[in-house]
Amino acid sequence: MLINDSFYKYIVINQDLLLLTGVSLILAIAIGANDETFAPVTGAKLLSVNKAVVMGALIVVVGAVTYGYKIAKEVGTGLTGGTIELPQILTILLSVAILLVLGSWKGLPLSTTHTMVGSTVALAVILGNYDSIDIPKIGRIVISWFISPLLGFLGSYGIMKLIIRFKKNYIKGLDDVDRLETLFSRGLIVAVIITAFSRGANDVSNAVAPLMSSYILLATETNTPFIDRVPLFLAGICMGIGLILIGRRVLKTLGNDVVELSPTTAVSVQVSTAVITFLAASIQIPISGTHVLVAAFVGTGFASGSKVNMNSVKRIAISAIITPFAAALSTIIVWYAFINPIYG
Amino acid sequence: MNREDKKEKLLELSSLIKRTGELYANILSSDKIDDKIEEILELETKGDEIQDILDKDFATQKNIPYLAIDRAKLLRRMDNILDNFRIASLTYKLYHKYLPDDFDGKISVISEKITVMSDKLSVAIDLIYTDFSKSLEVVDQIEKIRDETQDITFDIEGAYFNSLDGTTGWKSFQAVSQIIKKTTNCIRSIKSASEILTLMAYKYS
User: Fold this and answer.
1) Going by fewer Cβ within 10 Å, which terminus of chain A is more open, N or C?
2) End-to-end Cα separation, chain B, in angstroms
3) How far is B121 from chain A (nearest CA, A)?
4) What is the pLDDT of residue B129?
5) C-alpha dihedral sign at A257, A262, B138, B59
6) A203-262 residue pLDDT tens
7) Which DSSP category does A110 fall into?
8) Which structural domain range is residue B117 located in?
9) What ipTM was reported for this prediction?
10) CB atoms inside a 10 Å sphere around CB A311
11) How many domains does the structure of chain B reveal?
């Protein structure tokens, strides 16, 4: 028997765990809905949005269950050392989920980290825990508002200019264009698959980290070792569902509205985002991957001489700035309308 | 269909244009027109078949839309040339018995230029695959020839308008006018296809 009797007893006793799991899965849907990884591929029309979201959903599930386990375990077991309580966790998860879903519904790519921090700070203010407000972290977010677009723009502009120089030397006729674009499009799809896989592994921890220590304990106590992977699997599926149902809107905004992409320009977007995100993480510069990606679209567009839809860019930029404040508002509403009346 | 097959089909279509151009030029300066018109109609049907095959292929997910879109445009413009030659040759068949006696001599300059333009378009299409700058040079020559034909056709039509009798010569003028109009459409469509080559050369190089 895979699941023994003590497992059922544990689940019945732990209604809080079930509730937290449910809310975490809602957040997973929201995170999946705001996943813009495939935007360069759909923008270059190498895959239709339908195919991209289905493919992305499958990769996210695999990433979540495999590499996601280690990341979520590390993040999750670290979290339980703090003093954060269930109502507070529920408030943060729900308010972040609501904002991400709303943003995705409007086709706006939002930073999950900025949303989380906005929500955490608002909750600290509501509860009067001013000491717990991480001022340096807020400072890093403010800095990242400026650094992320700047690095994304400059990096992609530079990379696109290098690609253009290479093309000028290499391309003589249409035969060369065909060879190069085919090569670039294959490379781009491979790069996006790797990104989607690693994103699935990383993002799943945002949703299930608060649950991990409980599920690890449950697995040990009930002698059902696979149980601690269940939330990851479910969250992976939920992220996939979010991507399929709502994520297409974000892909359309980024892939189709901001700038017209070819396989070459899409490679510039993808490579510059990957390089900048990696370098920034290595030297600990606070950046938002989402904002770097958006700026990379713009930088690539300018460098390649394509028309950039500045209205879409402005819309995304404004949403990036108001994200933490909107998260704070969402937190206030969730706390006073739902959580406080129930737990207060 | 792989990349080489698609290229071959497009080049086959361009060779049809070249042959059709030659035939139409012959029609304009010859009495035996029926066989040539028949051949133009056959070539046009063959061109439609090639267009269908390529269109179906361009619409599949196997193609990178970024690369397929301009080729699909070029394909349309090339097919348009064949359509225009078909219409022009049928128009000639309908009106040629009313043409003034000296029309053959006057239009011969245009027929030569049509042959050259069709040939150059075929060369430019062939070159676009291997050398953008050389293809652009040929496209420039097409444009120059088109400009020359514009002046010549205008002069021919104007001359007949002024010389033919208003009462007895209206059928002849109508014939001249219709044939010049349809011939100009052929020339314009060759130029229009060559414009896509220019766009492709600038876009991809």
Assistant:
1) N
2) 25
3) 16
4) 95
5) negative
6) 888 888 878 888 888 888 888 888 888 889 999 999 999 999 999 999 999 888 888 888
7) -
8) 3-204
9) 0.83
10) 10
11) 1
Give the whole-angstrom CA distance, residue B117 versus residue B138: 10
Closest by Cα among B113, B179, B107, B181 to B146 = B113
Q: Do A173 and B65 touch (CB under 8 A)?
A: no
Say if CB A208 and CB A235 are below 8 A apart.
yes
Token representation of residue A57: 């959903």
- Could B66 and A168 be called an inter-chain contact, meaning their C-beta atoms sit closer than 8 Å? no
- Work out the number of other CB atoms within 10 angstroms of the CB of residue B155: 11
Nearest CA in chain A to B125: A174
Could A175 and B130 be called an inter-chain contact, meaning their C-beta atoms sit closer than 8 Å?
yes
Q: Which residue of B has its CA nearest to A264?
A: B66
Residue A298 has pLDDT above 90, yes or no: yes
Tens digit of each residue's pLDDT (9 = 90 or more) over B162-185: 998 878 888 999 999 999 999 999
Q: Using alpha carbons, list the distances in angstroms from residue B47 to A117, B27, B76, B121.
A: 63, 20, 10, 15
**Contact predicate B205/A171, CB 8 Å:** yes
List CB contacts (< 8 A) between A175 and chain B.
7, 129-130
Rounded CA gap, A2 and A82, in Å? 33
Question: Roughly how many angstroms between the first and final C-alpha of chain A, as a whole number?
Answer: 41
Q: For A64-119, write each residue's pLDDT tens digit.
A: 888 888 777 766 555 444 556 888 889 999 999 999 999 999 999 998 888 888 89
Would you say residue A267 has pLDDT above 70? yes
CATH of the domain at B22: 1.20.58.220
Q: Is A284 left (phi over 0), alpha (psi -120 to 50) or beta?
A: left
The answer to whether the beta carbons of residues A117 and A138 sit under 8 Å apart is yes
